[in-house]
């Protein structure tokens, strides 16, 4: 059964995304320029990291981020582990969420929303159960319900549960609560890494049906 959209999601959410993203790009343009220069100086080119991610209805789009890792390789030409390639500067970008700022362009393009389930890796699509796939019924977000309730520090099961909870309860008040909590969590740098990795461990499928 097709999910029913409320008035806010139908008529307000997308225009709000465009207005907020454009405003943020204008206000944060000096920071974007400075970060771009620092990334080019410290990590080299390209400044932006692009990666295919699934969006609304599992449509693939290219997501933009500031680069946070080097391209260091071993003697066989294979990339070194993330923990080696992630520099102190890269860690700072991630902990402050400055690496996420180029996603504002994805929001303006219509690939993403300010608030929604975070866009994950394309290879996860075949691993989702039917319940988890519902996260793609809406545009992915710059931040989301899972991000303000643990981000990378919570399990995949909890993350998906929060994603679907958001999909089923989209509202103006709910989105603004997430936006304000996101700003707060960026300042206190909470939940950036999981307990055992510099990024979230790869999703390997779920044994749960819902």
UniProtKB/TrEMBL annotation:
The chain crosses the membrane at residues 20-39. Its EC number is 2.7.8.36. Residues 13-187 form the Bacterial sugar transferase domain. Keywords: Membrane, Transferase, Transmembrane, Transmembrane helix. Coiled coil: none annotated. InterPro entries: Bact_transf. One of its GO terms (molecular function) is N,N'-diacetylbacilliosaminyl-1-phosphate transferase activity. Belongs to the bacterial sugar transferase family. This is Undecaprenyl phosphate N,N'-diacetylbacillosamine 1-phosphate transferase. It comes from Alkalithermobacter paradoxus. The lineage of its organism: Bacteria, Bacillati, Bacillota, Clostridia, Peptostreptococcales.
